[in-house]
Amino acid sequence: MSWMNATGQQVLSHAGDAAAAEITHPGLWSSQVRQRFFPLDLAVDQDAPFAARVRMAAYPQCRMAQIEATPHVASMSRAGCGDLRQRYVKIIWELDGVGWLEQADREVQLLPGHFAIYEASRPYSIRMEAQSAFVVLLCEVAPQDLLLSLAQRVAGRSLPTAGGAAVALAAVQEMVAQGEAIDIRSRFTVLEFVATLLAQQINASEGGSTRRKRSQDELLREALQYIKCHMDDSDLSPGRIASALNVCRRTLYHAFSSIDETPQATVQRLRLERCREVLAEKRGEKPNITDLALQYGFSDPAYFARLFRRRFGITPSQCREDEDAADANAHPMLLEGPPPAGNGRDSH
Questions:
Q1: Where exactly are the structural domains of the chain?
Q2: Does domain 213-330 have CATH number 1.10.10.60?
Q3: Pick from 203, 211, 190: nearest CA to 62
Q4: Which pTM does this prediction carry?
Q5: Helix or strand run (H / E) with residue 186
Q6: 257: which residues sit within 8 A by CB, 6+ positions away?
Q7: Same topology for domains 2-205 and 213-330, yes or no?
Q8: Which CATH superfamily is domain 2-205 in?
Q9: Residues with Cβ < 8 Å from 198, sequence gap 6 or more?
Q10: How far apart are CA 272 and CA 259, in angstroms?
Q11: What is the pLDDT of residues 45-65, one digit of tens each?
């Protein structure tokens, strides 16, 4: 899909297009970015020619774009932040040109070959001083998500696009290029992989994660991220999670006590939520429910169906077939008390 201006010129390209057409009308560019990407205020020098090329891809809970543009300023106002229903984190990789990111009382220079992570649901501005090229990834986040923790941890800093950050950039660029050709389940895995790669690079820049004492909150975020990256692993267990994070089982259970869940219950809950997201996805071929259950560690499809209905108020079949399933995905049924702690046959 792409948009056309009054003369029929293509102005914004979606993933999968051979090339992004040049946009020369800043007002049109601004309105389309606000409608299709994020409600930013965009300003340009009215006395200088404007041109931009944008390729973007929109997936559940995230959007990404590769942009080339002449000098401009993109900002998020306090009023605009107040209209948002979710918290967002944005990662920007500077490929060419020089930019400046301002947020709160901090200002950071963005040089080619560097990246920055910041909370996009707080007021900020980015000023590109010359012809620039950059890649952005915008993600919805929850308070305990790893990306939000990283944004808070490196606020006011830019870091070299090396190691894990370079691999993460390549993954995002390929997702923009492939678009809908990427299976919905693969998209989730890639995005979680990107977050983990960025965390590794940040840890390396600070001298290594093993040299830095982790708080309980940090340990919990790392454990949740590990679970999300390994949900389709039938051997996922508290012991394996603890071993991967270099802590004992007791320390791991203590970290999870802050959210009133055991590691097993969290694995079960996140697996159910992932299955719901896959079933509610409107695009692409709908998965076989039995295959989906087995993929995410539920060895008994009937037991999976009971757990699914208990948590979301509908059966897996109803979630897959209902045209309004995507809306239900944003507002799951609230249950009294935490999810069932017993993992039975599905979680280890």
A1: 2-205, 213-330
A2: yes
A3: 190
A4: 0.62
A5: helix 184-205
A6: none
A7: no
A8: Jelly Rolls (2.60.120.10)
A9: 91, 117, 147, 150, 164, 165, 168
A10: 18
A11: 888 899 999 888 887 788 899
